[in-house]
Amino acid sequence: MMDYGTIPKEGIDKEQLLEEMRSYRESDADWRAGRTWSLVYYAGDEHYEFLKEAYTLFFSENGLNPMAFKSLKRMEGEVVRMAASMLHGDRQVVGTMTSGGTESILMAVKAARERAKILKRLPLRPEIVAPRTIHPAFSKAAHYFGARMRYVPVDEQFRADVDALREAIGPRTMLVAASAPQYPHGMIDPIEEIATIAKEREIPFHVDACFGGFLLPWVEELGYPIPVFDFRIDGVTSMSADCHKYGFAAKGASVVLYRNMDYLRHQFFVEADFPGGIYASPTMAGTRPGGAIAAAWAAMKALGRDGYRELARRAMDAADDLKRHLQTIDGLEILGSEHTTIVTFGSCDEAVDIYAVADQMQQNGWALDRQHKPACLHCTVNAHNGPIIDDFSDDLQRAVKRVRQNPELASQGEAAMYGMMAKIPVRSAVEMSVRKVMEQLYGPDGGDLDLSSIGDDEDSDWMLRLVDRYGDQALKWLEKATDWWSGVRRK
Ligand SMILES: Cc1ncc(COP(=O)(O)O)c(C=O)c1O
Fold first, then answer.
1. What is this structure's pTM?
2. Per-residue pLDDT tens digits for 44-58
């Protein structure tokens, strides 16, 4: 028997290892057949094989030192320039590549903080003002860099409430952020109006186009009514766009761009006294994998604008097709989903529990994201999902019917857990529960993800009993208490 806890004394036969690794994939999400609606962006086998070749050409090279690997610096520079022109930036727009959307956002927040410091405008407890639908990478950045999130609500179309945002900006605001589009419901925030406010108040404004940066420019060219969201708008000072999403590059590649060097320079880190030599690093990472830079460069050059537009056309056609099907399923309603390939839907019938529908779909091999506030399911549509839209819709129709006929399904399986999690009004209790699961997952005996213990703790338990006993009234009290407490903490 193989011992999985130590490095084997003697190396194992490579063929045997490859075979074993292939077998591990059997329980993974089946993305190639188009049954997975997120996580993987796929532009066909030929492109995929080409990417692998490009990646392996620079497999060992390290983008940390641009003097040692001029090839990587050149390719990074070209990726940045191509992305800047795609997003209508002028020659002054500069930036770097990062390992992904999260790192790009971390860098934009860090640069905003450093810039505010230099300008002597950094308050004691700096805040990032953003709509509630902004990606959690911002609260991660706030957490890492000693800032706070100040969330503003979204309107009924899931776009930032501009009046609330204007109100939320204050002396502590160091950055305003919004999305093009936001991930949960695929809506573009009112970027132009927000930019005007940010500019008036002289606060940097980041547009998170991690999802849409490599998609919206082509969707706009295809004639869809897309609001302007990029460097054409004066008050936009930085943007992020992910090569490893609709840029169809290898994983580990994104771009963060700034209006000019006045912003980017605050991203850099230099340590002049390290005995190992002067250390200069443009991003979070030290060693920067050359393969990811090379594959991003190769993807952009190989697909070209025509290739991207064609992939965007096929993805938008598939998304439109899916929306048409959804409109015919009694009990479901589309939420947001106006601007891109994100299609989100929930239930408009009390007898249809949307999480139970997700469970039924999962049993049929479909992987869907479960979202909350409001409860809904999310599909990120790609060109390769096109051929399976009919099958998906048929299965969905059946799943809805089954859930309606079997109401007990709402209190079974994952539906029970997601339903319960959404009910717990004090979110720190949910956070604690999830943290415990992470400790198990990454503990010494860490193994498969077991979600059954979420909410199964004392804090959640008393809240749920309260809600069971006093119903909606208890929810309202708890929510009020939580709002009041958040207000106190903010002050
Ligand atoms: C709008 C948006 N921003 C940021 C991110 C974070 O990107 P990554 O997962 O590459 O770190 C995502 C990921 O889905 C996203 O959709």
1. 0.91
2. 999 999 999 999 999
